[in-house]
């Protein structure tokens, strides 16, 4: 069970290639949610574009999140030596939430400036999508540890720390669901800063 | 004819990579069929989203089906050692039905709540698409066996069982075309449960 | 110049992978040009779908053409041992016409049933796109022969025959531009049959 | 730090594969911004298509730019032997501007024929996107040199020349932002000619 045969590697590679493809497509499809402003006769383009800032803020945030997810997926799978069908299905679960993201992104962009509760609901739906993705990441890691699919031996404390790390995302994005009902715009800012933080934190600790 | 040269492998690999690409794109494009609800002045977002449940149900089902198709394709091609042009064209036939799926998915989502026969027709079109994909899978497997493109010798009973297995999908999805005219919603539920069942069944028997 | 180093191979591989990606995406995007029929109150879905047959015919034809183009690209590049920048740019020219195809496809689908000259113009634009793709294929092959990028020595008659083969497509699709002005529907049928013929002919002669 | 282990190579390969995927998708998505002209009763298709020339000019230009960016990315990464997380994030920055391009492309196409300042603003937004992409290219190269991630030793003058080369794009596209306010159409022409020039210049100097 523990021997790393070439066929196992092929399995992991094809899984990674498929996931890379899905991340690459999802990140590129985000642009289709950006729409040129419809101008009335004599209306200026520049202020109309500025007025669309929620679109661009949501685009940028989702791009950052999918980018980080791809980097994380990458880091995680470098430590995985074998892929079995259970892993394939949990990975599909993660990809489900990744591919869905353009939908709440456009929902968020559309309602970010609403005065009503709709802005909060849109933010909560967006945060829920991120929370579900974080849960899927945790499930994959838990499964991988439980079925000894990692490449190297890990000490108990290393294992605990790695599990903590992945649970973190679930807690933080879960909290964002609550924050959504305080302010949609603050939620977007927090989510964006989190993506930047994760990026830099990884820069610092992992190389 | 039976020697597995490096060029044969390259051929299979490029075929798999192309197919993986198509599956990854088709599964990611599904999200483009999800539309934000258009709200009237003062309308609430949350009930409007809940009201769109057929969209999400159809999205989830098609995602599950394309995911399973990818896993199946993967399992099948791991047993194939050589790709010739006949296999390439039958594979294109399968990809035709896979890439078409977003269309009946959006048709299904749009008409699932109709009271009229239109809901049944949409369900039948959706089921027909799945049946055609199942037939393509069977054709590929039949072609592969007939032209001795599998990696290993199979006993007669193994061959028969593997052919049965792939024919199963055709029969079940074919039956769904009929069930569509009883209830569109039951059809969607059956198709979704089938995808889950296939997922778990493979988890159990194949590793 | 003639030595096949590993770096040359890497170059060809990345070129093929990029092209495969573009073909896979273009073939999958075709589905976005299929639109659910907009029904009036009480209108039946089934006849409305049947009424949309030009959409499906154009979809099927473009799918077949892009599929064949992928197979052809595949066959051609298996014979090429090195990629230089000239080849990369000619390949981009081919990809330009491949990625553009969804546009004339939707134009064709929209106007196929028009009684006016518009149906003929749409068919001519579609045929012109195919002609330009065929010319790009010829240019690639001519460039490859001229710069000795093929894997093996070819006799003069083999060279001539291979050039003829690729020029064929240009002549035939060029003729379709003319036929478009006789009948748009006949043009679509011819183009579809040609794709099938190319498929089968390759089945017969190349394995 | 300088040893080129297999895992470093794997890292670069997956980075390149992901980037190739994103470029391939972005270049193929451009076609979705082309819309069939909506004809009034009895209107001719051919003049309506000709009237849409800004769409096609913008499509062609963006296709050329993304194609050149892919070739450049390719050339750059062939010289890079290791990828660390810093490089991954700078690469994501570049991909951000590459995936965004379809949006200013459609903005440009829509307003190119406007008599008002809107045409200039659209051209400036388009040029700004290109400038940001050029800056990302420069940042990557600067980072790669600073962290000794290149494959081979470079002399000081080689280093200076390579940095100059990449800074060039930033200056030229930056100048296009200014030119946009003189004439949107001239800007499009310059950008297109630049893409051609870069293509041919590379043909000449790099093989």
TrEMBL record, chains A, B, C, D:
Assigned keywords, A-Z: Ion channel, Ion transport, Membrane, Potassium, Potassium channel, Potassium transport, Transmembrane, Transmembrane helix, Transport
Bilayer-crossing regions: 56-73, 85-103, 123-145, 166-198
Catalytic activity: K(+)(in) = K(+)(out)
One GO location term (cellular component): membrane
Principal subcellular localization: membrane
Membrane topology qualifier: Multi-pass membrane protein
Signal peptide feature range: none
One MF annotation (Gene Ontology) recorded for this entry: potassium channel activity
Similarity comment: Belongs to the TMEM175 family.
Record's protein name: Membrane protein
Originating species: Kribbella rubisoli
């Amino acid at each position: 069970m523990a021997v790393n045969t070439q066929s196992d590697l092929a399995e992991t590679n094809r899984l990674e290639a498929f996931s890379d493809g899905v991340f690459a497509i999802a990140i590129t499809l985000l642009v289709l949610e950006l729409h040129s402003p419809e101008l009335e006769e004599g209306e200026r383009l520049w202020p109309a574009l500025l007025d669309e800032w929620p679109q661009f803020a949501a685009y940028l945030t989702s791009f950052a999140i999918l980018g980080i997810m791809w980097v994380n997926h990458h880091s995680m799978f470098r430590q995985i030596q074998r892929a079995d069908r259970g892993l394939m299905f949990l990975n599909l679960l993660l990809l489900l939430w990744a591919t869905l993201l353009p939908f709440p992104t456009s929902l968020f962009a559309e309602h970010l400036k609403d005065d009503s509760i709709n802005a909060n609901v849109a933010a909560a739906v967006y945060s829920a999508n991120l929370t579900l993705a974080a849960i899927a990441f945790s499930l994959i890691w838990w499964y991988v540890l439980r079925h000894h699919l990692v490449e190297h031996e890990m000490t108990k404390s290393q294992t605990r720390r790695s599990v903590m790390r992945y649970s973190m995302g679930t807690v933080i994005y879960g909290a964002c669901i609550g924050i959504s009902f305080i302010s949609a715009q603050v939620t977007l800012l927090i989510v964006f800063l989190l993506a930047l933080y994760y990026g830099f934190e990884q820069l610092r600790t992992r190389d």
